[in-house]
Amino acid sequence: MERVFIARHPAEAQFVKGLLENEEIECEVQGAALFSVRGEAPATSETLPSIWILNEQHVALARDIVARYERDPPSTNALPSWRCPRCGELLEPQFSNCWNCDTARSDAPEA
């Protein structure tokens, strides 16, 4: 096994694992459980979640995929915050309905 990525948090580790698995690269996340003790243990390459490749033959491809991810990470704010047209509440971009009055966002993507 060979480590190809050190994540900032478990969600990022799972995301990168998904990118690799989409290319049929067998991998696993190690160290995610240690994230819960980050106040007790220092954040180092040994205590942060990391991605390990199970098949040596896939390491080079995995490194290429990780390099692309690091060069061009997905946007976390693809949509701007929005104001509810009914009650005026300011809402974060991930919400498609107002939490206050349940009015639908007018430009929400269709499911």
Q: Your description of this structure?
A:
The chain starts with a strand and ends in a 20-residue tail after the last strand. The protein is an alpha+beta fold and about 110 residues long. The mean pLDDT is about 85. Helix content is about 25%, strand content about 15%. The strands form two sheets. Strands 1-3-2 form a three-stranded antiparallel β-sheet, covered by helices on one side.
Describe the structure in brief.
The protein has 111 residues and is α+β, with helices and mostly antiparallel strands. The protein has 2 helices and 5 strands.
Count of helical stretches: 2
Structural class: alpha+beta
Please state the overall shape, judged from the principal axes of the Cα atoms. Answer: elongated
**What radius of gyration results from the CA coordinates?**
19 Å
What is the straight-line distance between the termini?
39 Å
Strand percentage lies at 15-25%
Mean pLDDT: 85
Number of strands: 5
Could you give a short account of the major beta sheet? 3 strands, antiparallel
Uncertain spans, ≥5 residues at pLDDT below 50?
Answer: none
Write the layout of secondary structure elements.
Layout lengths: L1 E5 L3 H13 L4 E4 L19 E4 L5 H13 L10 E2 L6 E2 L20
Antiparallel strand pairs: 1-3, 2-3, 4-5
Q: Which labels suit this protein?
A:
111 residues; alpha+beta; 3-stranded antiparallel β-sheet; 23% helix; elongated
